[in-house]
Design a protein that fits this description.
The structure holds 2 protein chains of 2 kinds.
Chain A lengths: L2 E5 L2 E4 L5 E8 L5 E7 L5 E9 L2 E4 L6 E6 L2 E6 L8 E8 L7 E2 L3 E5 L1
Parallel strand pairs in A: 2-11
Antiparallel strand pairs in A: 1-3, 3-8, 4-5, 4-9, 5-6, 7-8, 9-10, 9-11
Chain B lengths: L2 E3 L4 E5 L4 E3 L2 E3 L5 E8 L6 E7 L7 E2 L2 E6 L4 E6 L8 E9 L6 E3 L3 E6 L1
Parallel strand pairs in B: 2-12
Antiparallel strand pairs in B: 1-4, 3-9, 5-6, 5-10, 7-8, 8-9, 10-11, 10-12
Classes of the chains: A mainly beta, B mainly beta.
């Protein structure tokens, strides 16, 4: 069966520091991968999606970037965090037709 | 652009009773998918149910069923025989069949279940 992992689970970082969040998927190959952000009391907003290694599209211009160095690994990064980057970050994957997306446990990021 | 609206920020239900969560959406497309996701306190999003727009029959998954009204662009979720474990945030989501396969989410409904 497929599983999706995210780490770290929680992170507190000062403004201006770098960021690296990691997501890995097991039990499937060539998944579509997604990064979403959930602000407090809001729904999820798609940040990046990837259909293959080094194939990444950005949905929202922002202070963040994404990379996919391996088929089942998706990384969310920032060179300098802003206060507005605080939130709950969720990674998701889909396979085949991509109709259903399955989410990881998420990372709670607090920028101080 | 497509939008999803959940007009009930909070709902409550007693254990064993039935509750309906509302969702409306706006789109000019004729083919799309709709989903309900559950987000418990652990905050991991869990897929509850899926509806294809081309299907007239309402989707059902055990105690969860939907009332899909395509003309009215309405997609409500009915939870029967509510259980304490159903307490969570519920998000309605839309997926276009064009372009990216991103999900567009509503702002969610917090469901409380009382014993």
């Amino acid at each position: 069966s497929q599983t999706i992992h995210q780490w770290p689970a929680t992170l507190v970082q000062p403004v201006g520091s770098p960021l690296s969040l990691e997501c890995t998927v097991e039990g499937t190959s060539n998944p579509n991968l997604y990064w979403y952000r959930q602000a407090a009391g809001r729904g999820l907003q798609l940040l990046f999606y990837s259909i293959g290694i080094d194939q990444i599209s950005s949905e929202v211009p922002q202070n963040l970037s994404a990379s996919r160095p391996q088929d089942r690994q998706f990384i969310l990064s920032s060179k300098k965090l802003l206060l507005s980057d605080s939130g709950f970050y969720l990674c998701a994957w889909s396979g085949g037709t991509g109709l259903e997306q399955y989410f990881g446990p998420g990372t709670r990021l607090t920028v101080t | 652009a497509q939008t999803v609206t959940q007009s009930q920020p909070e709902m409550s239900v007693q254990e064993a009773e039935t509750v309906t969560l509302s969702c409306t959406y706006d789109t000019s497309e004729s083919d799309y998918y709709l989903f309900w996701y559950k987000q418990p306190p652990s905050r991991q999003m869990i897929l509850v149910i899926r509806q294809e727009a081309y299907k007239q029959q309402n989707a059902t998954e055990n105690r969860f069923s939907v009332n899909f009204q395509k003309a009215a662009k309405s997609f409500s979720l009915k939870i029967s025989d509510s259980q304490l474990g159903d307490a969570a945030m519920y998000f309605c989501a839309y997926r276009s069949l064009r372009g990216t396969d991103k999900l567009i989410f509503g702002t969610g409904t917090r469901l409380q279940v009382f014993p």
